[in-house]
Amino acid sequence: MTGAPSLVIFDCDGVLVDSEPISLRLLVETLAGAGLRLEPEEVHDRFLGKSLATTREILAAHYGLTLGEDALADMRRRLYAAFRAELRPVPHVAGTLATLPCPFCVASSSQPERIELSLTVTGLWSYFAGRAFSATMVSRGKPAPDLFLYASGSLGYTPSACLVVEDSPAGVTAARSAGMRVVAFTGGSHATTDRHRAEIAALAPDAIIDDMRDLTEVARRTN
Predict the structure, then answer these.
(1) In the chain, where does DSSP find H-type helix?
(2) For position 4, what pLDDT does the model report?
(3) What's the pLDDT at 118?
(4) Is the peptide bond before 21 cis (omega within 30 degrees of 0)?
(5) Are 210 and 218 in contact (CB under 8 A)?
(6) CB-CB contact of 219 with 5 (8 Å)
(7) Distance of CA 115 to CAs 3, 10, 51, 83, 216, Å?
(8) How far is Cα 2 from Cα 5, in angstroms, rounded to an integer?
(9) Spatial separation of the C-alpha atoms in residues 24 and 187, rounded to whole Å
(10) CA separation (Å) from 139 to 51, 108, 131, 134, 214?
(11) Which helix (H) or strand (E) segment is 207 a member of?
(12) Could you give the CA distance from residue 206 to residue 176 in angstroms, rounded to a whole number?
């Protein structure tokens, strides 16, 4: 990386909050209830980091499954209940946010109410209120660059001044496509497999970190 960033853009799920195992578990259950039984590994590979709209497109195109509104509403209800009971912040993220040397925001594939719920139950919402961006605000979700470009533009920053923190191949790809530098975070409980880490490394992010405390030093680098 060359030049300290002016804005850090965080993904939410798997970066700020350790939500991906919960989310993927509920998706596996929802698909099974709709008659589509997929192994957790396939669900991880197909849907990690993708918006609900993109997930529905993949299900329709590759599996011939259309999830109805009732099924989606039930999945959200059970997911939000699980978040309230189980969700925890990524270790050391609050301390990292307090020491970052530049402004930051969150840009997530999740819906706005899910972002707010996730960050509220983990004690992080005060850091991001007014600076939270959802894939519902743009036409295309990750791996398209639209969300990151929308977030940076809304806050008045050029893409080259931004550093994205992502945990998924879709997110890393989106950041690259947006012309932004990207740090891959592999410290979430869903990101421990050799396969996931190899997929991330193959995309050549500017840095890979397992411990969120390392982000402060990465963001301070000037050469």
Answers:
(1) 20-33, 40-47, 52-63, 69-86, 93-99, 112-121, 125-128, 146-155, 169-177, 194-202, 214-220
(2) 76
(3) 97
(4) no
(5) no
(6) yes
(7) 30, 12, 12, 11, 23
(8) 9
(9) 17
(10) 11, 14, 19, 11, 33
(11) strand 207-209
(12) 10
Count of residues making up the chain: 223
- Per-residue pLDDT tens over the stretch 14-27: 999 999 889 889 99
How far, in Å, CA of 223 to CA of 204, rounded?
18
> Residues near 170 by Cβ (< 8 Å), separated by ≥ 6?
48, 49, 50, 109, 142, 143
Other CB atoms within a 10 A radius of the CB of residue 91 amount to: 14
Instruction: Tell if the pTM clears 0.85, that is, is over it.
Output: yes
CA dist 28 and 43 (Å) reads 7
Q: What is the pLDDT of residues 44-90, one digit of tens each?
A: 888 877 777 788 889 999 999 998 888 888 988 999 999 999 999 99
Tokens of 90: 């990524």
Query: CA-CA distance, 201 to 17, in Å (whole number)?
Result: 22
Residue 2's pLDDT is 55
Under-70 pLDDT residues of the chain: 1-3, 222-223
Q: Which two tokens stand for residue 160?
A: 């080259």
